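Before the break, one more example. Copy the sequence into your notebook; we will annotate it together after we see the structure.
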Amino acid sequence: MRNRAVTDIAAGAIEAIRHSATGPFVTAPDLPLARAEGYPLIELTPGEHGIQLDGFYAEAARDYAQQAWAVLRHRVREGPHDRLGLTDAIALASIDGSPLACLIDGEPAECPSPFRFTAEPCGVDLLATAHDL
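Here is what the structure looks like once it is written out:
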């Protein structure tokens, strides 16, 4: 059973990488550090100082191997990427104008392309556990 789980995980990782590599790339036209040809994945991480942007890519066989290893270990953020900067708002667009496939708090969503993401104050008090502080 354990071997089956490893096989399933590997197959899922390969399919995720294939989809990322063949789907429409995402661009951040307002960011001077971003690649003009775009990225298979741009991660937006909101924080108290704005939105941190990271563009993930795989160009060479070594990049694909690094990304596959990161996916298999559930550490996607360790794959090859460009640190694009910190901003309060960013417009993202797909290269071909198709809707942007997004994960928002882990939930699948679709946004029109282009779409502007902003960091806004939250008008509610949130609870955190001691290890989050």
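The CA atoms of residues 49 and 74 lie 26 Å apart. Helices lie at 2-22, 61-72. Try to locate both features in your own notes.
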